[in-house]
Design a protein that fits this description.
alpha/beta, 6-stranded mixed β-sheet, 6 strands, 30% helix, globular
């Protein structure tokens, strides 16, 4: 945990600027086996993301619009494991904000996730390396959007919904449901002089064979009937 928080402190020190990305592709990590590992289905989803949407030779380049991603950002071991196949295909490292839930109580873990999310959002919206480019963020769902966490931290922005200014535009859900692993949030900043998004879209992940058996369900609906017992619910 100490090493992860050191990374957060470094990222948070970036000076403010108007270097916003053109697009942020935001998604949740794959299905979990335990606190630190994906289950086999989550591992398969990571490969499916690479081969279908986010990798160098992806069959569907509609999200990347034919562009090379500038960076892949992650916050936990689950998100790193999900991002690594896609990032590696581009010869990129996963830029981790390093919160590892080992020997940490829930309160300490949630505080670490909040600090890491704040640092990552500052990096995304201020780092000139990402200016007018596409950044992929694979995140822990409660710190994407969760009204309960936001109420508990009243007066401080702790979710990406707040920190990326998604609460300033219409149509953005107030919560990322715990039952959904199969969506992207696509966030565009057409005005490069403003950190306020100009558009938002939710895109459901759909896969051809051999990934067509991955669990999929509509937004904010129960887990599908084929959700494997080997994965955490």
């Amino acid at each position: 945990m100490a090493a992860g928080l050191a990374l957060v402190a470094t990222a948070a020190s970036i000076a403010p600027s108007e270097a916003v990305p053109r697009r942020i592709i935001l998604l949740r990590h794959g299905e979990k086996a335990n606190a630190t590992s994906l289950c086999s289905v989550g591992q398969q989803r990571a490969i499916a993301l690479r081969d279908t949407y986010l990798g160098r030779n992806a069959s569907n380049n509609s999200l990347l619009e034919g562009q090379t991603p500038a960076a892949f950002l992650a916050i936990t071991v689950h998100t790193e494991e999900t991002s690594t196949p896609s990032a590696t295909s581009w010869g990129l490292p996963v830029r981790s904000f390093g919160v590892i839930p080992i020997n940490a109580g829930n309160e300490q873990l949630m505080a670490g996730l909040a600090r890491a999310t704040q640092a990552a959002a500052a990096d995304v919206l201020q780092n000139p390396l990402w200016e007018n480019r596409t950044v992929v963020m694979t995140w822990e769902h409660k710190h994407i959007a969760n009204k309960g966490i936001e109420r508990q931290n009243a007066g401080t922005n702790v979710t990406l919904r707040q920190l990326l200014n998604l609460d300033r535009i219409a149509g953005v859900p107030a919560k990322w449901p715990g039952t959904n692993y199969d969506y992207f949030w696509i966030i565009d900043y057409a005005d490069q002089n403003s950190a306020i998004p100009t558009s938002f879209e939710m895109v459901k992940q759909t896969y051809p064979a051999p990934f067509n058996t991955l669990p999929h369900n509509d937004w904010n609906t129960p887990l599908p009937s084929n959700f494997p017992s080997s994965c955490l619910r």
